[in-house]
Amino acid sequence: MKIGLQKIVSLCKILLLSFALISIGYMLGKNSVREQRSSMGIAGNADHVAVYYLHSTFRCETCNRIEAMTKDLLEREYADFLGDGRMLWNEIDFMKNTELASQFEIAASTVLVADVREGKVIRYQRLDEVWTLTGDRNAFDSYLRAAIDLYLDGRSAKNE
């Protein structure tokens, strides 16, 4: 039985189009779940300390400085915790994530430290003083370090 070249080409187009649509649908569904979970600072059900930088859609120079200083401290002093998943860094636009803004009572850009257990935030601390400390690197780092260490120490004590 001879099948014409045109029919083979048509069949291949249909198969490729079907494959592409299924792949896109799968990717969108997977990314949607990942984005929803990561926007809340949740990676699986692993227990961890989440450090959030919650910002508005439009950021000023100070907002950008707060994010950069926070990331720098985490990379310098908490790289091991970030590397093994005991700590997660999250940069989130709270104006787009209104659920998170409501949960943490966010009205302005800030840093927040949260204890996440079995995928749920069980306690958190907003670090609103970051705004007044951006001009003093040592004070900024000390302020963040104190809050982060409190959460990391609390996790160690509860897990041992």
What would the keywords be for this entry?
160 residues; alpha+beta; Glutaredoxin; four-stranded mixed beta sheet; 6 helices; 4 strands; disordered C terminus
What is the number of beta strands? 4
CATH class of the largest domain: Alpha Beta
CATH architecture of the largest domain: 3-Layer(aba) Sandwich
The end-to-end distance, rounded to whole angstroms, is: 73 Å
Major β-sheet profile? 4 strands, mixed
Can you describe what's shown?
- This protein has helices spanning 5-39, 61-77, 79-84, 98-103, 130-133, 137-159, and strands spanning 48-55, 87-93, 110-117, 120-127.
- It starts with a helix and ends with a helix.
- It folds into two domains: 1-39; 48-159, Glutaredoxin.
- β3 and β4 form a beta hairpin.
- It has six helices and four strands; from the N terminus they run αβααβαββαα.
- A four-stranded mixed β-sheet has the order 2-1-3-4.
- The radius of gyration is 22 Å and the shape is elongated.
- The chain has 160 residues and is an alpha+beta fold.
- The model is unreliable at 30-39 and 156-160 (pLDDT under 50).
